[in-house]
Amino acid sequence: MSDRAATPKTASERPPTRRRRSRYEGDVPREHYLNVAYGLKSWLFTIDHKRIAILYLLSITAFFALGGLMAVFIRLELLTPAGDLMTSEIYNRVFTLHGVLMVFFFLIPSIPAVFGNFFLPMMVGAKDMAFPRLNLASWYIYSLGGVFTLAAIVAGGVDTGWTFYTPYSSTYSNSAVALTAIGVFINGFSSIFTGLNFIVTIHKMRAPGMTWMRLPLFVWANYAAALIMILGTPVVAMAIFLVAVERLFGVGIFDPALGGDPILYQHLFWFYSHPAVYIMILPSMGVMSEVIACFSRKRIFGYGFIAASSLAIATVGFLVWGHHMFVSGQSIYASMVFSVLTMLVAVPSAVKVFNWLATLWRGSISFETPMLYAFGFLGLFTVGGLTGLYLGTLATDVHLHDTYFIVAHFHYIMVGGAVMGYLAAVHFWWPKMTGRMYSEWWGRLSAGLLFIGFNLTFFPQFLMGYMGMPRRYHFYPEEWQVLNVLSTAGASILGLGYLIPIIYLTYSLRYGPIAGPNPWRATGLEWTTASPPPQHNFEQTPVVTEEPYDYSKPIVNDLPAPGAGAEPKPSPAAPRS
Amino acid sequence: MSQQHGPVTAAVMTGTMPDMPDHDGPLQHHFDDMAQQNESSALGMWLFLLTELMFFGGVMTAYAVYRYLFNAAFAEGASHLDVRLGTTNTIILIFSSLTMALAVRAAQMDKRKLLVGLLIATMLFGGAFLVIKGIEYAHKWEAGHVPGAYFHYEGPLANHVHLFFSFYFTMTGIHALHMVLGIGWMAWLVLRSARGDFGVGYYAPIEMTGLYWHFVDIVWIFLFPLLYLFGAGAAAGH
C-alpha cells in the first residue's frame, strides 16, 4: 500500500475498467458476493457458487459438531473398563451415528462442497460452475438427507454401524435403519451432482490460456475425486436402496433365508465405500499441493506426477475393495489379488508425499497456520498410510481385523489426513472468502493442540488394537485402561483444538485485520481478484500465460497492475475438450 | 438436464440478485457463448447417464450373481412372466424413442406444432407402457407373486423364486420410476415448446431429454431379455 501512495495515479491515468477494481484501497471492496444482497431469501435461492459454498460450510460444520458430540460420548464411556455410562444398545447407536454423520455428512462433502465449490470455478477462471442450479439443488438434497438422518435419531437411532452390514441391518436390527438408509441414499445424489458439476466445469469452463497442464493441483485432485463420486456413489446408492427395500417391503435380496447372499451386500457397499476414502483424501492432497508450494515459496516439484497420481489413485482405488473382506469368507485367491492391488495404491500416494518433500527441499519455508496443518497432514497421513500396509497384508489382517488398530489406522487417514487438509484449506482461503485475517497466534496454537491431541487420542489405539481390543465394544479388560485414559485425554485436547478455531474465525469476521487480495502472496487466479471476490469472481475474464506455482516472480498483496495479464504473450486459447 | 431458466425462476433470481444479468435469454450469464453452453449441457447429461449406468449396474450385477447360483429357480420364476405383454411394451417403448428422436428434429427445424405433438405422443407411449406394466403387476399380485409378507408360491424352489421376483419388482420398479420422471419432465417441455421457447438456435433441453429417454429405453432393452425371455423356453406350465 505504501508503494501505491508513493506513485499516486490520478483517475484519468487509469483505464476506466480499473475504477471498480481500485475500490480496494486498504479496505474490503465495496461490492462483493457477500453484500450484493441481504436476507434469508438471497441465500436460500442463490445460485452463486461462492454463497452455496458458505451454505455448505455452515451445514457441514453443524454435522461435524454433532458427530463430534457422539465421539465425546464414546470416549467418556471408554474411560472406564466397565460399561457404566450407557447400555450396549445406546453405545451401538452412538458409534453408528458418529460414523454415519462424519463419513456421509462431513468428510465426503467437506473439501469438495466447500472449497471445491468456492474455488474451483475461480481457479479455472470461470464466473460460476457449469450448472449453478444443480449446484444449489445439491445443497438442498444434502440437507434433505440430513433431515432424514436426524429424524432417524429422533426415531431411536440406528445401531448397525455406518456400514449397514446385512443381514443384521436388513432383518434383525430393531432400530431406524430404513430412515437412515434413505437419508444416506438421498445424500448420495448431492455428491453425484457436485462431482458432475466439477467435471463439466473443468472441461468446459476454463479461461483462455488455462490449459490442462496449467490447472492448479487442487483442481486435478478434485477432478479425480469427482470421477469417484459419479462412478462409485450410484453403486452404494443401489446397495443401500436394496437394504431399505428389504426392510420396508420384505423384498429379500440379501436375506439368507431366501438364498440371498449377505456378502454380496459387502461387495456392493465397499465397491463405493473404499473409493469414498479417496473422495475424502484426494481433495485434501490438493490443498497440500497449494499450501506447501506457497509457504515454501517454490515451484511445486513434479507437477505432472502429482496430477497423474491423483488419477492413478482414483483408478486403482476402485480395484481394492475386497481388502475389507479378507475374513468374510471370500475366495482366498480374490483376497490375494486384492492384497496386491492394495499395495499398488500405496505407490501413487507415496509419489505425492515425496514430491511434497522435494518441494520443501531448500524452499524458504515459513510456518503460518495453514503450513502447520500441512506438516501435520504429512506426518499423520504417512503413519496412516504405512499402517494400512499391515491391514492390506493377508496374514496380519486376520489378527488386526476389527480391532482398535484399524480404528486408529483410518482415523489417521480421515482425521489426520482429510481433516488436517480441510483445516489447512480453511486457514489458507479464509482471508479470500471473508476478506479478513484471523489471529495467527491462536491459529498456530490450535494447530499445535490438534496435532498433539490427535496423536494422544489415536496412537494408543494402535497399541490396544495390536493387543487385541476389538472395536465397537463399550467394556474391556482392565489392563487396557491406561491406554484408554490416554486416548480420552487426547480427545479432550483434540476437542479444544476444534473449538478454538470456531471462536477466532468467527471473531475475525468483524474484528480481523483487512486481508487484501493476496495476503499469502500466492499464485493462482483466485488470488488475482479482490477479497472477498466480486459476485462474478473477476472483473474481466482472466487470461493465463504462465505455468502454475511460479514462485520465482515477485508477488504482492495487491490486485495486478492495470493491463497486466490483459495483453498476454500470444497463447493458445484453452481448447474445450 | 435443466440448464435453462424459465421466466418464473428467472424472476426469483433477478429479484434476489439485482446484479444478475437477465436470465430470460437462453444463454446463461456464466457462459461465453451458446456453443459452450450446449457442449456443457451435453457433457453433463452424458456424465449423468454414466451414473445411471452404474446405478443399474449395481442391481444387474446382483441379478447376475443370483441367476448363476439359482439358474433353475430363476428360469422357473421367469416362466411366470407374460412374454406377450413384455413384448408389447418393448415395441411401445421403441416407438416412443422414435417419436422422441423426431421431436428433437422438429425442434431443430423450428416446427413448433410438430414438436408439441411428438412430445405428447412420446408421453402417451410412455403412459401406455406404464399402464401395461400396472396390469402385469396386478396379475402378479393376484397370483401371490409379489415378494414380501404376501408372497405365495408352491414348489421346491419357492425361496429362490421369491428372490427372482424380488429382482423383477426392484428392477422394473426403478425403471418405471425413471419413466414417470421422464414423462413429468416432458410435460414441462410441452408447455415450454407451446410457448415457443425452442427453435433452431436453442433446443438443448429437448435434446437432453431425448438422451435421457433413450437411455431409459435401453435399460428396458436389457431388462426384457434378462427377465422375460430367459424363462420363455421353460414356460411349459404357463
Strand content of chain A: under 5%
Average pLDDT for all residues of chain A:
90
Mean pLDDT of chain B: 86
CATH topology of chain A: Cytochrome C Oxidase, Chain A
Radius of gyration of chain B (Å): 22 Å
- Please, how many helices of chain A? 18
> Which blocks of ≥5 consecutive residues of chain B have pLDDT under 50?
1-24
CATH fold field value of chain B: Four Helix Bundle (Hemerythrin (Met), subunit A)
Order of helices and strands of chain A: HHHHHHHHHHHHHHHHHH
| Class from helix and strand fractions of chain A | mainly alpha
Looking at the chains present, what oligomeric state does this protein adopt? Answer: heterodimer
- Span between termini of chain B: 43 Å
The appropriate CATH architecture of chain B is Up-down Bundle
Largest inter-chain contact set? A-B, 54 and 50 residues
Q: Measured on Cα atoms, how large is the radius of gyration of chain A?
A: 24 Å
- Point out poorly predicted stretches of chain A: 1-25, 565-577
According to CATH, what is the class of chain A? Answer: Mainly Alpha
Total number of domains of chain B: 1
Task: Give a quick rundown of the structure.
By secondary structure, chain A is mainly α. Chain A contains 18 helices and no strands.
Question: How are the SSEs placed, and which strands pair?
Answer:
The complex is a heterodimer of chains A (577) and B (238).
Chain A: H1 2-6, H2 17-21, H3 40-44, H4 49-77, H5 88-107, H6 110-123, H7 132-154, H8 168-172, H9 177-204, H10 217-249, H11 262-296, H12 303-316, H13 332-360, H14 369-392, H15 394-400, H16 404-434, H17 440-467, H18 481-511
Helix pairs in contact in A: 4-5, 4-6, 4-7, 4-18, 6-9, 6-10, 6-16, 7-9, 9-10, 10-11, 10-12, 11-12, 11-13, 11-14, 11-16, 12-13, 13-14, 14-16, 14-17, 16-17, 17-18
Chain B: H1 7-16, H2 34-69, H3 71-78, H4 83-108, H5 112-143, H6 158-195, H7 204-227
Helix pairs in contact in B: 2-3, 2-6, 2-7, 3-6, 4-5, 4-7, 5-6, 6-7
